[in-house]
Design brief:
single chain, 338 residues, mainly alpha, ABC transporter involved in vitamin B12 uptake, BtuC, two-stranded antiparallel ribbon, 13 helices, 74% helix, 1% strand
């Protein structure tokens, strides 16, 4: 009887959440269709800008998810993104090869991830301090070596996916994008499957929740944590490369502008889940896209206020959801093998 009661309650809770999510999704779709009927060009512009702003946040959040699901706190996403953005930009300046520049950015993120893993796993340094070291180091090195007046050999342009790009409303938004945007969308799906539907993902989550129990059944905790932090570094490197190779096509000092920290808020908002975090990133991207449209509509706001909107949302989201979201139990705790 007790088990039946518990099952009924849990099923009722699941049903309520499902209904709530469906209603919310239908409301969003209805609003988009309504505004698209009134102004198709503006609606398409807002949705495209939303996705463009969301891409680095999605990739940064995936970096945090891979690290923290394995028990390693990564505060250094901002620095990883900035350093990768700088080196991918400089590679583009020197060689003019966009593919090579992209690979350099991803490799830079992986190396920075390896450095963080070494500090956290081998040296057992406080993981928050290790991430802060990466942020400070990236800011200093990129600021010192950056030179003004450099020109690149171009940037990544949109690749329309044939007839799909001609679908009204969603075609130009989803199927007419540069390659890193496509990669971000595919990586969300791939990460969701990898973390929650494979043996590797199960072991990763076990290492983040109870590493000693995972160790007793033969899982190499140290090796798995190293690989997860390196993979997360690749994601952050891809986010940095997006900024210089696909977003603006140039580099500026401190151009990440807090995106790495917002990505952490997105990860918490999404409860360490790739798809939920991607939806949270779209929420932040929509806020950025709307402030531009407000200016086009003649609603002039001080640029200081506009610039602080993402950070206000970060504070609201973290303060409102961090208590409700449960981080992996072993997050930030160095593992001592007996």
């Amino acid at each position: 009887m007790i088990s039946e009661t518990v099952n009924k309650k849990s099923w009722s809770s699941i049903n309520w959440k499902l209904v709530r999510n469906v209603v919310l999704g239908l409301a969003v779709i209805a609003a988009i269709v309504f505004f698209n009927a009134r102004s198709p060009e503006k609606t398409s512009a807002v949705l495209s800008s939303t996705l463009r702003y969301a891409v680095p946040l999605i990739l940064g959040a995936l970096c945090g998810i891979f690290c923290e699901r394995a028990g390693i706190v990564n505060i250094g996403i901002e620095g990883q993104m900035l350093f990768s953005a700088f080196l991918s930009y400089m590679t583009n300046v020197w060689t003019g090869n966009l593919l090579l520049s992209l690979l350099v950015g991803m490799l830079t993120g992986a190396i920075m991830g390896l450095f963080l893993a070494f500090l956290s796993i081998k040296l057992k340094l406080n993981q928050t301090i290790g991430g802060t070291v990466i942020n400070i180091m990236a800011t200093g090195i990129t600021g010192y070596f950056y030179q003004t007046g450099l020109t690149t050999q171009g940037k990544l342009w949109n690749i329309p996916l044939g007839p799909l790009a001609k679908i009204p409303l969603i075609g130009p938004v989803l199927f007419n994008n540069p390659p890193i945007t496509y990669m971000a969308i595919l990586l969300v799906i791939f990460s969701q499957v990898l973390l929650f539907h494979t043996r590797w993902g199960l072991r990763t989550r076990a290492v983040g929740e109870h590493p000693r129990a995972a160790d007793t059944v033969g899982v190499d905790v140290f090796k798995l944590r190293y690989w997860n932090v390196i993979i997360g570094g690749v994601m952050a490197g891809l986010a940095g490369s997006f900024l210089t190779l696909e977003g603006v096509g140039m580099f500026e000092r401190g151009m990440t502008n807090g995106r790495g920290f917002i990505a952490l808020a997105v990860m918490i908002f999404g409860k360490w889940n790739p798809i939920s975090s991607a939806l949270a990133a779209l929420f932040f991207g929509f806020a950025n896209a709307m402030q531009i449209q407000l200016q086009f509509m003649g609603i002039q706001l001080p640029h200081q206020f506009v610039g602080m909107i993402p950070y206000l949302l970060t504070i609201i989201v973290v303060s409102g959801f961090v208590g409700r979201s449960r981080a992996p139990a072993a997050e930030g705790i160095p593992y001592e093998k007996e």
